[in-house]
Amino acid sequence: MASSPHLDMKAARHAAIRRLLETGGYTSQEAIVTQMIKEGYDVTQSSISRDFKELGVTKLAGVYRIIHIGTFQSPIKLLVKDIDTAGDNLLVVKTSSGGASAVAEAIDIEGIPGVVGTVAGDNTIFVATKDKSSQSRVIKKINEL
Fold first, then answer.
1. What pLDDT, in 10s, does the model give residues 5-22?
2. Rounded to whole angstroms, what are the CA distances from 46 to 17, 29, 68, 135?
3. 60 in the same domain as 13
4. Are residues 52 and 108 in the same domain?
5. Which residues does the chain have with pLDDT short of 70?
6. How many domains does the chain have?
7. What pTM was estimated for this model as a whole?
8. Which of 9, 74, 82, 115 is the most exposed place for a label (fewest CB within 10 A)?
9. CATH number of domain containing 106
10. Same domain? 59 vs 79
11. Euclidean distance between the first and final Cα of the chain, in Å?
């Protein structure tokens, strides 16, 4: 069965985005859109944003990067400074400056049992857990990533 032209175009677009992010140091989606258009791709900021979500792209220290969970490139190992409890169902994760978004995305992608959701600032993440008994398991899992 032949692949659809839409899927071929999407795969080519994703490959181009990967290449640009590996070589670029892009700090804005607009810069990626401009470069992609120069290379002949029909993209908008909205389509690039969707592609970023599909590819696992996040902004780390001001630069867009693809996060590779479970490898030496995991942002959790590189960026987490401290994890503490706050009440019965909240964890506070401290990261290096600018690292909270990448770490929160990694936690969300990992799908840790007991995590209800994350909210990231610049260097702090609130991790909501189902209950107090989930907190220690979630902390242990985050530290294992």
1. 556 788 899 999 999 998
2. 14, 9, 23, 36
3. yes
4. no
5. 1-7, 67-75
6. 2
7. 0.54
8. 82
9. 3.30.1360.40
10. no
11. 39
